[in-house]
Specification:
It is a single chain. By secondary structure, the chain is of the alpha/beta class. It folds into 3 domains: 5-133 and 333-347; 139-327, ATPase, nucleotide binding domain (Nucleotidyltransferase, domain 5); 373-554, Carbamoyltransferase, C-terminal domain (DHBP synthase), CATH 3.90.870.20. The protein is 31% helix and 21% strand. The protein is built from 17 helices and 22 strands. It has helices at residues 42-46, 54-63, 131-137, 140-143, 185-192, 195-200, 211-219, 226-234, 246-256, 267-295, 310-319, 336-347, 373-384, 415-425, 440-446, 494-507, 528-537, and strands at 5-9, 27-32, 35-41, 74-78, 86-87, 93-96, 107-117, 120-129, 150-155, 164-170, 173-180, 299-303, 324-326, 389-392, 406-411, 435-439, 462-463, 481-482, 485-487, 512-516, 542-545, 548-551. The protein has an 8-stranded mixed sheet, with helices on both faces. A 7-stranded mixed sheet has the order 19-16-20-15-14-21-22, sandwiched between helices. Strand 2 (27-32) and strand 3 (35-41) form a beta hairpin. The longest helix has 29 residues, at 267-295.
């Protein structure tokens, strides 16, 4: 048996702040013979959202046997524009590499050392994977090897040598097309480094990891306005107006004659957000169209945090530019270790196995995973009373979105119930939508567009047919779309499939609300203790833990 591959994204940040800053979402992946054995997003164990302190946790996780590592492995680390090195708290795992000045779809020989037992240690085979490449390769464990004549694109807030890069893959060769901070930098910065965006949402500068999702949700309440778009461009999007936001309001008054306010209920602010979203969509689409005009690729592999923008993803699919589009459920920084591990395993000649998204398994307790019909029936009965249930089954999802194993669920037919779940239970802002989880066969009935593979990972939005909007009122956005997640077979998620099937067959229920099992500002629950503590704190009506139903009096 070949040596396993250990991949880490754990680059030390430049500063220690209240919130993770340049570097965030540290994670680790162990693969053996093309299969993921262990995967961990640090935040799930540390309970600090977007945590960037893997250097402080690595040794204790190994010492406490939470991480179960062999004495020898091939080490691959992912870099970042702030640096290349990873050194654990006491130096027992050390990785160092020269600064990279060019982007290559390759792995770079580096230095690695692992002290595996007491004073026993040794140099180990160590390689560097560049940030952009790891983003692109994060799709491999979910879709298999790259298809010939594919365009490979990474678009992120920041990677190692830019925020945007593109490769073409033909005849087994990767060729760099573009890599820079300029082509799409202005567009991605609207979501994570823009004073106007942050002020509209009343977000602190350090909260840049959470702003993209909030801005995308807020944008659905407004309408794109060409005059607002022109105003934004002429003022360089007010990017650098930190602590000078009153000048923005003065500019609005001067240009539009409107006394606007930094209030999420302000219609003009909603239209600014919608115009920003429109600018981002157009920039990405124009870039892809220009690449396609020149290279005529059949397929697109798309990674980086920007690939979580579901409206843009939908536009890409509906454009028909590509035969198929592949985006990993962990396409943001949370999947960098998965991408790096898969790339090295691929380079070793191992076939990468196709995985489900339920990979977050470090520190997870073994438990009862059998499902009985009575549990499904009782769970359905509670939901039919318009109650809210937490789900904590098996391994957690890889990436930022709950896909049925770490979810809060409820009936999808009530706006009031959806608002209660989002605002009272989760403590989230009023404008943030929740999503439906559905059997694929039901999604095909309610959606205007065809249901494609990315719906498995909640990576697209779909226009809901008018006749189904009332029975899905809690999950339909202000623009009549819904961010549908589909389950097609029992294999994909046995409990959720059987619950959805029971509700559909016996009660005509087409969809359930599915939102992540966490309170605002906290990571998604991971362990049994997390689930019970959060269920009690959130005053849920019931909890399903490892397919066993627990009512709230037993929390």
């Amino acid at each position: 048996m070949a040596k396993p591959t250990l991949a880490i994204y754990g680059i030390k940040d430049r500063n220690i702040f209240k919130y993770p800053a340049y570097v965030h979402d540290h994670n680790l992946c162990l693969m053996q013979d093309g299969e993921i054995v262990q995967y961990l997003q640090l935040e799930r164990i540390s309970r600090r959202k977007y945590d960037n302190r893997f250097d402080l946790y690595f040794e204790r996780l190994v010492d406490e046997n939470i991480l179960q590592l062999p004495d020898d492995f091939d080490l691959v680390c992912v870099n970042d524009f702030v640096g290349n090195a990873f050194i654990s708290e006491n130096g027992r795992l050390r990785f160092e590499s020269d600064r990279q000045k060019t982007l290559n779809f390759d792995l770079v020989e580096s230095f690695g050392y692992y002290q595996y037992d007491g004073w026993n240690g040794k140099e180990i085979n160590a390689l560097l994977c560049q940030h952009e490449v790891a983003h692109i390769c994060s799709s491999l464990p979910f879709f298999g090897d790259f298809r010939d004549n594919s365009l490979l694109v990474s678009l992120d807030g920041g990677s190692s040598l830019g925020n945007y890069s593109a490769f073409i893959y033909r005849d087994g060769k990767f060729t760099l097309i573009e890599n820079n901070w300029t082509d799409l930098g202005f567009a991605s910065k609207l979501f994570n480094d823009n004073s106007l965006s942050f002020r509209m949402l009343n977000a602190a500068p350090g909260e840049h990891c959470s702003v993209p999702g909030k801005l995308m949700g807020f944008a659905s309440w407004g309408s794109h306005n060409p005059e607002i778009e022109k105003w934004l461009i002429e003022n360089n999007y007010f990017k650098e107006y930190w602590n000078n936001e009153n000048e923005i309001l003065k500019s609005i008054k001067k240009c539009f004659g409107i006394d606007a306010a930094f209030d999420t209920h302000d219609e003009f602010m909603q239209n600014i957000a919608a115009s920003m979203q429109h600018i981002f969509e157009n920039a990405v689409m124009q870039k892809l169209e220009s690449l396609q005009y020149k290279y005529h690729a059949d397929y697109l592999y798309y990674g980086g945090g920007c690939a979580l923008n579901i409206v843009t993803n939908t536009n890409i699919i509906e454009s028909g530019m590509f035969k198929d589009v592949f985006i990993a459920p962990c396409c943001n920084d949370s999947g960098l270790s998965i991408g790096a591990a898969a790339f090295l395993e691929h380079q070793k000649g191992n076939e990468i196995k196709i995985h489900s998204p339920y990979l977050n398994n470090v520190g997870i307790e073994n438990g009862q995973l059998t499902i009985d019909n009575e549990t499904i029936r009782k769970t359905a009965e509670i939901l039919l009373k318009h109650k809210i249930i937490g789900i904590c089954n098996g391994n957690g999802e890889a990436g930022p979105r709950a896909l049925g194993n770490r979810s809060l669920i409820a009936l999808a037919d009530s706006k009031e119930l959806a608002q209660k779940m989002s605002m009272e239970v989760k403590k989230r802002e009023w404008y943030r939508p929740v999503a439906p989880i559905m059997l694929k066969e039901n999604a095909e009935k309610v959606a205007v567009q065809p249901i494609v593979g990315l719906a498995k990972y909640m990576l697209m939005d779909f226009v809901i047919k008018p006749e189904y909007r009332n029975q899905m009122a809690g999950v339909v956005h202000a623009n009549n779309t819904a961010r549908i997640q589909t389950i097609e077979t029992e294999n994909e998620n046995p409990f959720m499939y059987r619950l959805l099937k029971y509700l559909s067959d016996n009660h005509g229920i087409m969809a359930l609300i599915n939102t992540s099992f966490n309170v605002q500002g906290e990571p998604i629950v991971h362990t049994k203790d997390d689930a019970f503590r959060s269920a009690k704190q959130m005053k849920l009506d019931a909890l399903v833990f490892n397919n066993q139903l627990i009512t709230n009096e037993k929390f």
